[in-house]
Amino acid sequence: MKIATTFSTNGDTVTATSEAIAALKQKLGADPDLLLAYYSDPYDSAELTKILQSETPEQCQIHGGTSCLGSMSDSGFHSKDGVGLALWGVVDPKGSYGTGSAIIGDSPEDAAANALEQALDKSGRIGEVPALVWINGAPGREEALIAGIESILGPDVPIAGGSTGDNTVTGNWKQIANGEVWNDAVVISVLFPSTKISYAFHSGYDPTKITGVITKCEGRTLLEIDGRPAAEVYNKWTEGAITEMLPDGGNVLALTSLYPLGRIVGEVGGVPYYKLSHPDGVLENGGMTLFSDVAEGEEITLMHGTIESLVQRAGRVTTAAVEQGNFQSEELAGGLAIYCAGCMLTVQPKMDEVASYVSAALNDTPFIGDFTFGEQGCFVGHENTHGNLMISIVAFSHIPTD
Questions:
Q1: Is the pTM for the entire model greater than 0.90?
Q2: CA atoms within 13 A on the CB side of 320
Q3: Which end of the chain is more exposed for a tag (fewer CB within 10 A), N or C?
């Protein structure tokens, strides 16, 4: 197995893509078996995917989508005035890879199942269980997409990836797969690498002692906590973080990024781990909109992060992924990183530092990082989950699977 990455911040789609794919093939010394592309939305997705397809053979599986403001890799943070792209390729003659896609529409579970079956067919490994399912979909129905994958494979295959983002949170996100482009699709790749992989899913936040119970909600709208308007309760918990938005409502994305709401997923050694929900809007009725589904009766905990914790935690989650696989540093081949766009925007001036921590934890092997509007990953207790403000890492090794 050989992994390589390249990047460009050239504002011209043709120049950036052509240079990046040429450099990638040169680094790999061959055409990739799987090619991942993450790029900011000012690039022309149709032109980009056309070039990638024309420069690779038919058997190369192409998977990607837009990433908020750019991307990152072992070479750093790639964003120049909101423009940047990165490519990740793997050459693995003894492995198998397949990519499928489907429009989500009104049936997200069916779409995910359809895309997964296409991916398995392309991999040539129908009836076998992949080591990993890698996913990028349009934001909004992530829990159902996970359910659709698990309806085919069951709950024991790790799922990781993220929801495609854009620069302005205005729906300019795109998904690409094998020459096609959408804005409301799910793209799924199945990975049967010839070497062992490991993974980790975590956040850069710590729980506070402040908790409450969801007493009224509708999907991703949190209406009441402990029988009181959710925005009012949240504002009290955060000592006035959203006071200015209480009278008329409005977008609170930037105001809440250091104070998400957490729900316990499981425990390790008596220490709970959490999936997070990021409040993005206050409604005139006192409710709050979130980027993930919630249910009545669930206990929520106010979480807290700092700039420094968000900068350092990506490296720590990467270290956890490496340790989960019991990999020595010299055994590492590369990695994949999903880093929440909300976290990235919060620590943007320090993103080169974030990339360096991930790179160091992977022993400076090639990795690509995608800035997403929702993160999917597999916790240490093997729960495939969608969350917000999360970090999802996959580490690849040189250790044969046999």
A1: yes
A2: 18
A3: C
